Amino acid sequence: MSQAPENAINIHLALRWSDQDLLGHVNNAKIMTLVEEARVRTVMQLQQDNQWSGPLDMVLRTSQTEFLRPVMYTGDVEVNVWISRIGNTSFVMQHELVQDDAVCATVEAVVVMFDNAKQAPMTIPEHIRSALEAVSS
């Protein structure tokens, strides 16, 4: 059963033939690629919805995955994405990868705002913090 809050962003992703392994399961490494795509699309949607422009200087710090059941090539997947914590320079994104109404994998990712010129974490700008709060649980 889904643990996603009502304000989670839902991203629909089509699977590709090359995503599967010999057993017809989507390969675990491909699951991470699907989650990455959902994370990027979520940030782009937040950017569009909140009408901010400019670079999205963010880096992935850590990622923890729990595989609950196989994802099969036979159908597309939905990824529910929401924010569970917002700090000074980082935030935690939760991901649920769902197929056929069942949660197949969960991913918790720590994303850090990053100053590329200084090669160091930076404070989350207020306009980005406000957008993150809109999908926060």
Walk me through what this model shows.
There is one protein chain. With 137 residues, the protein is α+β, with helices and mostly antiparallel strands. The protein has a single domain, classed as Hotdog Thioesterase (Thiol Ester Dehydrase, Chain A, Roll), CATH 3.10.129. The protein has two helices and six strands, in the order E-H-E-E-E-E-E-H. The chain has helices spanning 28-49, 126-133; strands spanning 9-13, 58-67, 77-86, 90-99, 102-115, 120-121. Strands 1, 2, 3, 4, 5 and 6 form a six-stranded antiparallel β-sheet that branches. It starts with 8 loop residues before the first strand and ends with a helix. The model has no long low-confidence stretch (mean pLDDT 93).
Q: In a nutshell, what does this entry contain?
A:
The protein has two helices and six strands, in the order βαβββββα.
